[in-house]
Amino acid sequence: MLALFPGVPAQSVQELIALARARPRALNYASAGAATLAHLSGALFEKMAKIELTHVPYRGTAQSTLDLLEGRVEMQFGTIPPSLHAYPRAASCARWR
Q: What pLDDT shows up at residue 13?
């Protein structure tokens, strides 16, 4: 699952890819840690979209979700259950793809 901070000026995945291509390495994404499924999802997204993002590894989903909601990271790759259950209001605060 890809979650975006509402301040990211992209309304679709296509717009996000265009934004990332225009600003290589300027956008960052959080994951639950290095070599996790979320990290590998982000790396696969980069490769398939031919873009460059900055990976910000966390020790779990709770802190990364908080930082996404606060705007400290622009996007987060994660699995649905931890992302939604860590902060129940997250669905109303961030755009979920």
A: 93
